[in-house]
């Protein structure tokens, strides 16, 4: 094949990506590339620097979802489809840099799930793990592996991998929570399975509060064997989390980058509460401005209480209760609180740590 215009064009594009490649010589290689392609072979030198980047190159961008703007869509979805028909009535928070991909970051899923009084989201199980962070409503439940927990705003509730779970609302008001799932990580590895339960709900065989009694008091049943890497604590209630942050702030100085930031832990091993999703609750006192910080884990932030603003890269977002925003990998961010602010955060940091990927950079250090 003789080098034609398109070959030159392609070569020109390549020259922009890999400056060391000679443009004229590249045009002469097009025939070779064509024949190689027919044998399912591709030259690495044409893609190397796009594959092995000199720094994180997230397609995900800084973004915010204001709850006041999102909530009407959740309510409208309730008019249009039942939980029964939808299986899970969830509006996915899609990163504007990743439209149509059901991703809030490249590795994380986020969605707002709404369940109306009397509705049941039927039982199923899947390899993907889920976290539920409760936004509004009272006394709706999730049942996992035969035990129910009633959910209150600010509670952090875990659905471990491959456990049967259904959700129900026996209260008289809608309940909304944020779902955080790791299915994109599962799918990257092609490790996904799911199964629907034959009945609507899985039978209950443990009393409410069982997990809390077994694991929620800095005590564990002697000789208990833990096969799962997920925390045996089912629900980390907001009341206790808030109290811990409050008491901490009374005697410790705020950290320059994190203010007061506590990680949720698995009492069995002291590690992260979930094997694929790191979770924290952060308290930023009124008037405090966190120093600029970046890390390789893109993170999802949900405001529980208070107001403030966050500078994420070149953008500034003003936020209040229930607003959700995202900081992409390696994009520096800082927060200012205009009233005492409490923010729930999740990311894939735990995965990156296990794989020796994770890095952070604190401005001024
Ligand atoms: O509640 O089981 O947002 O399976 C996405 C997938 C929620 C759930 C989601 C799910 C669920």
Low-confidence stretches: none
CATH class of the largest domain, please? Mainly Beta
Number of folding domains?
Answer: 2
- The share of residues in helices is 10-25%
Mean pLDDT metric = 95
Structural class: alpha+beta
For the biggest sheet, the summary is: 6 strands, antiparallel
Radius of gyration: 24 Å
| Second rung of CATH, namely the architecture of the largest domain | Sandwich
Placed side by side, the strands forming the largest sheet appear as: 1-19-16-21-14-13
Count of alpha/pi helices: 10
Structural summary, described in words:
With 365 residues, this protein is an alpha+beta fold. It has two domains: 6-51, no CATH class; 63-362, Jelly Rolls (Sandwich). It has helices at 5-17, 23-27, 30-38, 48-51, 67-80, 83-86, 183-188, 210-215, 238-251, 349-354; strands at residues 63-65, 90-92, 109-115, 120-126, 130-136, 140-144, 147-151, 156-159, 165-169, 175-181, 194-196, 235-236, 260-263, 278-284, 293-295, 299-305, 308-312, 315-319, 324-327, 333-337, 341-347, 360-362. The strands form five sheets. Strands 1-19-16-21-14-13 form a six-stranded antiparallel sheet. The protein has a six-stranded antiparallel sheet with strand order 2-3-10-5-8-12. A five-stranded antiparallel sheet has the order 7-6-9-4-11, with no helix packed on it. Strand 17 (308-312) and strand 18 form a beta hairpin. The protein is globular, with a radius of gyration of 24 Å. It starts with a helix and ends with a strand. 2,5-dihydroxybenzoic acid binds at residues 88, 90, 111, 113, 126, 130, 165, 179, 181.
